[in-house]
Amino acid sequence: MAKKVTRVNRRLTEEERQRIATIRIAAQRDFPPKHATRKAAAPGIPATIRAARESQGLTWYALAQKAGIPNQATLRDIERGKDVKVSNLQAVAKALGLELELVPAQS
Q1: CA 59, 82, 50: angle at the middle one, nearest 5?
Q2: pLDDT band, residue 1 (cuts 50/70/90)
Q3: What gap in Å lies between CA 103 and CA 37, rounded to an integer?
Q4: Where are the domains of the chain?
Q5: I need a labelling partner for 80 at 20 to 30 A (CA). Which of 40, 61, 71, 105 fits?
Q6: CATH no. of 45-95
Q7: How far apart are CA 91 and CA 70, in angstroms?
Q8: CB 95 within 8 A of CB 67
Q9: How far, in whole angstroms, is CA 1 from its chain's centroid?
Q10: CA pair distance 35, 32, nearest whole angstrom
């Protein structure tokens, strides 16, 4: 039968802290963190939706909850300009304090 390992919690010595800091710096140099680059929102309605969401400090999940949409991926799709149900788009706009309006096309 395997022996149960007990964990000992203690403060690190200054020497241990320096050694860990050196290891961390070397690891970050060898494997630099990836900088997250988000795709820009499609122009028009998607850009307006994203700007309104970010100005209110809402995540996709929080806005989906506020709009009554069961899946936050729907918001991602809206912001990327993909096809979505008009009812979902209306719910998101309402949750953000925006209004969808149809206007005659200019020829």
Answers
A1: 30
A2: low
A3: 35
A4: 45-95
A5: 105
A6: 1.10.260.40
A7: 12
A8: yes
A9: 46
A10: 9
User: CA nearest 67: which of 80, 83, 82, 85?
Assistant: 85
Contacts of 95 (CB under 8 A, 6+ apart): 63, 66, 67, 68
Handedness of CA 50, 52, 55, 59 (dihedral sign): negative
3-state DSSP percent of the chain in helix, strand and coil, to 5? 50, 0, 50
- Work out the pLDDT band at 103, boundaries 50, 70, 90: confident
Taking CA atoms, 23 is separated from 11, 14, 32, in Å, by 18, 14, 13
Give the C-alpha separation, 39 to 95, whole Å.
23
Distance CA 72, CA 66 (A): 11
Sign of CA dihedral 33, 38, 39, 40: negative
Residues 15-31 pLDDT 10s: 999 999 999 999 989 98
